[in-house]
Amino acid sequence: MAQLEVRDLHVVFGGLRAVDGMTFDVEKGEILCLLGPNGAGKSTTLDLICGKTQPTGGSIRFQETEISQMMEFQRARLGVGRKFQVPSVYKELSVAENLSVARSMKPGIWHALTAPAVRRSKRMREILDLVGLADKTEEPAGNLSHGETQWLEIAMLIAQDSRLILMDEPTAGMTIQETARTADIFRSLSENHTLIVVEHDMSFVRTVADRIIVMNQGTLLAEGSIEEIEENEAVKTAYLGH
After folding, report:
1. Which sequence spans correspond to the domains of the chain?
2. What is d(CA 210, CA 205) in angstroms, rounded to the nearest whole number?
3. E strands along 27-128, which residues?
4. pTM for this one?
């Protein structure tokens, strides 16, 4: 059984069906990339899965639990994490302190920052090694490069035990070197996490995607491997400008 099952998912904004009958599965450990022209409904689909937007209808099952009517924080506690286009980190706190806040099981920054055992935990070191920030532990997050800030936010989602991570244009604004490093991070993540990625950088998509779904006007236009998508005539017409 798939880790995520989406069935006939749709949402209406003022009479406009921004997402219209989306149905797809995502397997555990898979990297699924969502492609499509601007306004195709890609980011809205992520919003619907994480709970930022409530669907008008349809079903979303995560690890066999129906989550389509849950609040955003309830889905997060089940293991659904969302990374938005603009990184959301505490710039005045260190990298380690940001992870402490993310890992804390009790509300409030103060509790997180007064739990040194959490800050020095083996798990934290493993996470920072994974995203390439092990040598930045005490660096204020505000001093990080754009790419490093993106990696810190990914680390925070891992620290929250997000099993499904939704990412919206994670490589936007990155250097070529940062983009290549991000591809490596994604491949490492897929050993224990499932990723759904909205991305416009086709070279990056070719590097990381196990499968691609192309959306157009809120609907699923095509799905398959990168080779199948590039040869799909409907995709060429709607997205690649055939």
Report:
1. 4-238
2. 9
3. 31-35, 57-62, 65-66, 80-83
4. 0.89
